[in-house]
Amino acid sequence: MAEDLSEILDEIQAEADLHTELDELESNTSLVAFWTFAKQVFALFILEIKKLFAKHKEEVEALIDTTEVGGIEWYLDTASQYQHGDSLVIQNNRLVYLEVDPDLQIVKRVSIKEDPDLVLQVRVVKEVAGDLIPLDATEHSGFSAYMNRKKVPGTALDIQTLEADVLKLTATIELDPILYTDAGELISSPGTFPVEETISNYLKNFDFGGTFYISKLIDQVMEVEGVDAFYIASKTLNDISFTYKVDSNAGHIALDDTSILTYVLR
Predict the structure, then answer these.
(1) What is the DSSP letter of 22?
(2) Which of 7, 10, 73, 135 fits a disulfide with 140 by CB distance 3.0 to 4.6 angstroms?
(3) Which stretches of the chain score pLDDT less than 50?
(4) What are the residue ranges spanned by the domains of the chain?
(5) Is-above-0.85 flag for pTM?
(6) What pairs with residue 232 in β-bridges?
(7) Minimal CA–CA distance to 195: which of 127, 255, 131, 129?
(8) Pair 146, 105: CB distance under 8 Å
(9) Residue 82 contacts by C-beta under 8 Å, 6 or more apart in sequence?
(10) Which one, of 78, 66, 63, lies nearest residue 151 by Cα?
(11) Three-state SS annotation for 137-155
């Protein structure tokens, strides 16, 4: 504040120096005290005006943040705020929860896309023991009711919560025999299968609702210590073959238990 006040006083003085009719206020000893006091009063007044404008700006920006609706980002944020079993109330003409309770916020992943018919496709899942799974019937019903109350009037929503799309691989992985057994197990840590864990973790953390690129999965596996090569002979998503990328309708992907991963020691 002191620095702002000093800057304002400097600006007042710089402006006063441009007006010769004020010279007497600077040189007349009987007026100097009054002029100094007047400049300080003006500076304090200007400072208070600046504070009021700054506060007003913050209030306006906050109001915009709480009233702007309709965009994809707004819908994503709204979906993630769902509190299962909690009631909505009206505050400032908006439907809100009285209190934020993270324990009730069951939606852990959400994707929203607009299809050619201008319908918003909403895909959500919850997380149990580290796995992404669909909402149960009661949760789905509650979430759907919540979104339809919060949405912009006239907006069509297609709300689904689906089992993971299934990725099936037939692949050969070349491994360093110093580190691995021919089953892909770490010699130094029996029961640990780094390649399979890497694939599962990548699919678990895959960009929910995004496009799946097989090259990114290959990159992840090739970063595993001791992996010399990763050859994919075939790949399908929900039993449908694809080339280098595919969209996930469910929003998330899991590795098929019947995938064939053949380990070769080199």
Answers:
(1) G
(2) 135
(3) 1-2
(4) 2-67, 72-160, 165-265
(5) no
(6) 171
(7) 255
(8) no
(9) 105, 106, 107, 142, 143, 146, 147
(10) 78
(11) HHHHHHHHHHHHHHCCCCC
